[in-house]
Amino acid sequence: MGFFSLGNRGPGAGADWLIVGLGNPDAKYQGTRHNAGFAALDFLAQQWGCPVNKSKWSGLYGMARVDGQKVVLLKPLTYMNDSGRCAGPAAAFYKLPPQRVLVLCDDVTQEPGHIRIRAAGSAGGHNGLKNIIQHLGSEEFPRLRIGVGAKPTPEYDLAGWVLAKFPPEAARAVAERYDDIEAACRLILAGDLPEAQNRFNG
């Protein structure tokens, strides 16, 4: 049994899941905190032998076979704050309910190397999640948030913080969790999000 109702996707749906990695598309944003979702999706694509190089919905996507399921990996090219303009139409195209849209994104409330998995919830101040909620018309989608570290002081500009590149030690801490992120995604795809939370949160 899954952890939620997976919904009726309708006849002829071409995918079982959509995984969306959030980030900004320009080369200057590579390695920044805000692109943690992009980087995690790139790792999944490499592990699953799935080039994310087809263009549609103002994004890049690829189709992977994961444990017998068809999984679309999607990178919005709309910039972070407009991520839903890509993710929403992709989910609609494949007739996927929000519960089958898994979002990977950065989280400034956690230290680098920590991850937090939730089945649903508010955007928690994350503009990419906020826009996806708007376009899906629901908060009922799973998300895996990747710790990137908090601002050094309350006065520090948040945009400046998330758009800055990781220092080497923090980058290593995040990269060391990629195998766990991949394992967590497999559990979520299999409908066992609580087990993913028990094993990998914190």
Structure, explained:
With 202 residues, the chain is α/β, with parallel strands linked by helices. It has a single domain, classed as 3-Layer(aba) Sandwich (Rossmann fold). Helices cover 32% and strands 20% of the residues. Strands 2-3-4-1-5-7-6 form a seven-stranded mixed beta sheet, sandwiched between helices. A hairpin with a 2-residue loop joins strand 3 (59-66) and strand 4 (69-76). The longest helix has 12 residues, at 36-47. It is globular.
Label the structural class.
alpha/beta
The domain count comes to 1
pLDDT averaged over residues: 93
Task: Give the % helix.
Answer: 25-40%
By DSSP (H or I, 4+ residues per run), the number of helices equals 7
As for the CATH topology, it is Rossmann fold
Inertia-based shape: globular
Taken as a percent bin, the fraction of beta residues is: 15-25%
State the end-to-end CA separation: 25 Å
Order of helices and strands: EHEEEHEEHEHHHH
Radius of gyration: 16 Å
Biggest sheet: strand arrangement:
2-3-4-1-5-7-6
Q: Which CATH class applies here?
A: Alpha Beta
